[in-house]
């Protein structure tokens, strides 16, 4: 059994990345994404528009980032890129929409930044759809 210099097995690190990206994505999907998509009419009336691009476009971007991107993350498809909209939405929430929040009030958002920031840096790991399909990147040893 091969271990890294830290004494851990590489497959355990990959399992950790799988757990991190799937659980974080399911949380975003259930808590934020699906409620926005399922209650579109009431959400478009209530959503903040911090960039002044219109409530409809703001909500569509939020649904993209909180429904479509988590599904990509769960599958391990374009994981690093799929993490970016989630990070952007979370940063906007903390820096613009809820800038008066204390650390305690914003702890969920900070945890999302930690989870999806880690996945954006580390990638999906070995357990992803593209690895199962034998994509070129998995044959070159690149972890996405």
Automatic annotation (TrEMBL):
Q: Point out the coiled-coil segments of this chain.
A: none
- InterPro entries, alphabetically? DoxX (IPR032808), DoxX-like_oxidoreductase (IPR051907)
Pfam family of the protein (one) = DoxX
Where in or outside the cell it occurs: the entry states:
Cell membrane
User: Carries keyword Transmembrane helix?
Assistant: yes
Q: How does it sit in the membrane?
A: Multi-pass membrane protein
Question: Which keywords does this chain's UniProt record carry?
Answer: Cell membrane, Membrane, Transmembrane, Transmembrane helix
Q: Name the major location.
A: membrane
Q: Which GO terms describe its cellular component?
A: plasma membrane
* Superkingdom in the source lineage: Bacteria
Instruction: Give the stretches traversing the membrane.
Output: 12-33, 81-101, 107-127
The family note in this entry says: Belongs to the DoxX family.
Kindly provide the name given to this protein in its UniProt entry.
DoxX family membrane protein
Organism of this sequence:
Paraburkholderia elongata
């Amino acid at each position: 059994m091969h271990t890294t210099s830290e004494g851990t097995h590489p497959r355990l690190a990959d399992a950790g990345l799988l757990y991190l990206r799937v659980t974080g994505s399911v949380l975003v999907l259930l808590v934020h994404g699906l409620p926005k998509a399922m209650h579109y009419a009431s959400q478009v009336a209530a959503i903040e528009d911090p960039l002044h691009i219109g409530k409809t476009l703001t909500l569509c971007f939020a649904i993209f980032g909180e429904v479509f991107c988590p599904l990509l993350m769960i599958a391990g498809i374009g994981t690093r890129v799929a993490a970016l909209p989630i990070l952007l939405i979370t940063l906007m929430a903390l820096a613009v929409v809820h800038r008066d929040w204390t650390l305690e009030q914003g702890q969920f958002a900070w945890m999302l930044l930690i989870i999806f920031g880690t996945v954006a840096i580390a990638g999906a790991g070995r357990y992803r759809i593209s690895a199962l399909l034998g994509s070129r990147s998995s044959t070159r040893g690149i972890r996405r």
